Amino acid sequence: MPRLLLFIPLVLFMILGGFLWKGLSIDPRELPSALLDKPFPEFSVTALQQPDRVLTKKDFVGKPVLVNVWATWCPSCRQEHEQLLAIAAQGNLEIIGLNYKDERAAAINWLRQLGDPYQFNIYDEDGMLGLDLGVYGAPETYLLDAQGKIRHRHVGVVTPAAWQEIQAIIKGWDSVKN
Predict the structure, then answer these.
(1) Are 71 and 77 in contact (CB under 8 A)?
(2) Are residues 46 and 77 in contact, defined by beta-carbon separation less than 8 angstroms?
């Protein structure tokens, strides 16, 4: 019996090693979303640039849109900003900004300096809408269909490759219609 006790650390090490090995194969960019294929959460919050304007989901339902979660404190958001400007310039898909846990004045100034790719910006000062969406942090981007359902979630910077992936999803919608 005492000799069997000597193998306990080895067995525990092998079990722990198995968990660590499994962890190496997980892609940290692929975070699950409980809202995939579900409606965008209901909300009623103010617009970033127009504090007197109350925005709801009805402001963008009826057409496919990208909802981009961003903030001035987020260095990756600055990195993806050029790509968002390019997407907006194409005019094929509207981008709605979700300014997340930010200061209003800093965010407005940031958009003045860098350009504004957004149709409008939802000001989520306390992060409650982000919480309802399951936001892990900025940047995150959600592709919504015309009915307001979340069809794709991209965590991290929207790169040209990520944009191509989003476009392929939209083209898949078009092929279903035809």
Answers:
(1) yes
(2) no
Nearest alpha carbon to residue 69 among 34, 115, 107, 30: 107
- Phi, psi (degrees; rounded to nearest 5) at 39: -65, 145
Amino acid at 95: I
CATH 3.40.30.10 describes domain 32-177: yes
For residue range 24-60, list pLDDT tens digits in order.
766 555 555 567 889 999 999 999 999 999 999 999 9
Positions of E strands within the chain: 44-46, 54-56, 65-70, 94-100, 121-124, 140-144, 150-155
Alpha helices in 7-63 (DSSP H): 8-24
Q: At residue 38, what is the residue type?
A: K
Using DSSP bridges, classify how beta strands 54-56 and 121-124 pair: parallel, antiparallel or unpaired. unpaired
In terms of Cβ atoms closer than 10 Å to its own Cβ (0-12, 13-18, 19+), residue 165 is middle
Q: What is the pLDDT of residues 77-112, one digit of tens each?
A: 999 999 999 999 999 999 999 999 999 999 999 999
**Domain layout of the chain by residue ranges:** 32-177
CA distances in angstroms from 27 to 14, 22, 136, 178, listed in the order given: 23, 11, 15, 35
